[in-house]
Design brief:
Shape: globular
Number of domains: 1
Number of strands: 0
Number of helices: 12
Order of helices and strands: HHHHHHHHHHHH
Mean pLDDT: 81
Distance between the termini: 45 Å
Length: 255
């Protein structure tokens, strides 16, 4: 086995260990075998370490595929590789940002014209939230940065916790299983925190329900949250997301 193959195998073992540790941690927390403080600390550590390892695996895999892809048209190879690497890098940066509470803007790419991370913090929370709402589905990377700025000033801001998590879930839908698991760990934690801070905020219940179903195959947990969501009269645009998934959740429960 070549050195590169040995390195890749070692990285994959590390990834599997960390992802299994995350699954075990979620299970232990669900059944009350670990307190919230220890859970949060360990979750952040596992997510950050796993994200770093997955990024290394992506780099090593891309290098090893160069020869195999030599038969593909030269113009096609860079496009496919760059798209994959851009997606993986973006998702990993967002996962780590959601876990640690900061966002490295230069890694994720774009920034609103004239903005800087430090300078924007001087804006009022309401002003930053307004800009984030306007950017939500236009440029999720920028929106997540803005929500993170709000959370640096106001860590208990329910809207910022909720929508940063939701954007991470949306972006992760087209990623591989390992990145989805990291996204779930970060997003579900933020959404659960938002619900703990304000149990009557419907958006957090709605998005947690969708997240549980899409990223964790938990139809029972999803149904519970979606029912709470519906009872709390969510905004029309959020209700649209929920309506599109309720039938799938019910079908999964009927199996």
């Amino acid at each position: 086995m070549s050195n590169s193959s040995e390195l890749l195998a070692e990285l994959q073992e590390q990834r599997d260990f960390l992802l299994n540790s995350l699954r075990d941690l979620e299970r232990e927390h669900k059944f009350g075998d670990i307190d919230d403080q220890d859970y949060e600390s360990l979750r952040k550590e596992y997510v950050s370490r796993a994200a770093a390892v997955i990024k290394q695996i992506e780099k090593a895999t891309t290098q090893s595929q160069s020869v195999a892809e030599s038969s593909v048209a030269a113009t096609d190879v860079p496009k496919k590789r760059n798209l994959r690497r851009t997606l993986i890098t973006l998702l990993i940066v967002l996962v780590v940002a959601s876990s640690s509470g900061w966002f490295v803007a230069q890694q994720s790419g774009q920034r609103l014209a004239g903005d800087s991370l430090a300078g924007s913090i001087e804006d009022s929370t309401a002003s930053i939230l307004s800009r984030a709402r306007a950017t939500n589905f236009v440029d999720p990377k920028v929106a997540i940065e803005l929500y993170t700025q709000v959370l640096e000033v106001d860590p208990d801001n329910v809207e910022a916790l909720t929508y940063r998590a939701w954007l991470l879930v949306l972006i992760s839908r087209s990623a591989g299983d390992e990145v989805k698991q990291l996204a779930f760990a970060s997003a579900s934690s933020d959404l659960e925190r938002a619900i703990a801070l304000d149990p009557n905020y419907p958006d957090a219940h709605c998005f947690l329900g969708i997240t549980l179903f899409r990223l964790n195959d938990d139809a029972k947990g999803a149904k519970e949250q979606l029912t709470i969501c519906a009872d709390k009269n969510p905004p029309a645009e959020v209700k649209g997301f929920v309506d599109s998934i309720v039938a799938e959740v019910d079908a999964a429960l009927d199996k």
